[in-house]
Amino acid sequence: MSSRVEILNDGGFRSDGRKQYELRDISIDLSQQGTADGSATITHGLTQVMVTVFGPREAKMRSQTLHDRAVLNVEINVAPFSTGERRKRSRADRRILELAAAIESTFEPVVQTSLYPRSQIDIYVQVLQQDGGLLQACINATTLALITAGVPLVDFVCAVSGGVHSTEPLLDLTTLEENDLPNLTVAVMPRTRKVTLVTMETRLHVDRFRDIFELACAAGQTIHKEMKRAVKDRTVALVGAMDAGAKHPLADPDAMMEDR
Hints:
It is a single chain. This protein is α+β, with helices and mostly antiparallel strands and 260 residues long. It has five helices and nine strands. The strands form two sheets. A five-stranded mixed β-sheet has the order 1-2-3-5-4. Strand 8 and strand 9 form a beta hairpin. Helix 1 packs across helix 2. The radius of gyration is 21 Å and the shape is globular. The termini are far apart.
């Protein structure tokens, strides 16, 4: 059966001009958002997600606290304008609950929750724009938000989606490609090379699974470099600001006494 859209043309280019294994442009913003302990906004092509993290802090409900570790609470809100259909999704929407559960299960073995018993870490995900790869964007933004919040992690978690067109594997799918191709999302820890999540919402032939899985793991290393660079740049900027504040005359007691 022929594809409804031209996923891959004769020249080897996809509908958005990329090659098979080419990732979409990634932009990362780690600016502070309100009173959040950590925040990150990540853009994969036309998919944009903002994540804010509060905590570790005292749990809101004692019945949900655990005496030996912290509890991860993930809440997702999808902006009505994020897609063309202008559909408002409630927090009880099945798709929203599935995304939240996937994010929670991905980070439970990564966050060192045992360091914060009887506490809670709240992760709020705001979907601003959707064009495929929503779960990968949520996972990558959550990793960066947790890091900026100072929550200790075992490793980065880097996610990427992939699919198969005929016999050709593709990486970082758009909405058109996700709707037309069998696809999966893989989340890996680049330093330890462990996989924290593999999820498929469509059937994928077992002979094709290994190819796309290995490509997705390799692509995770590339995304890790971009995320690590963003964290490093933010750290350098913060250290520079602290040094500048320490050298400011108002921060030097001796200089203040001399002025008097």
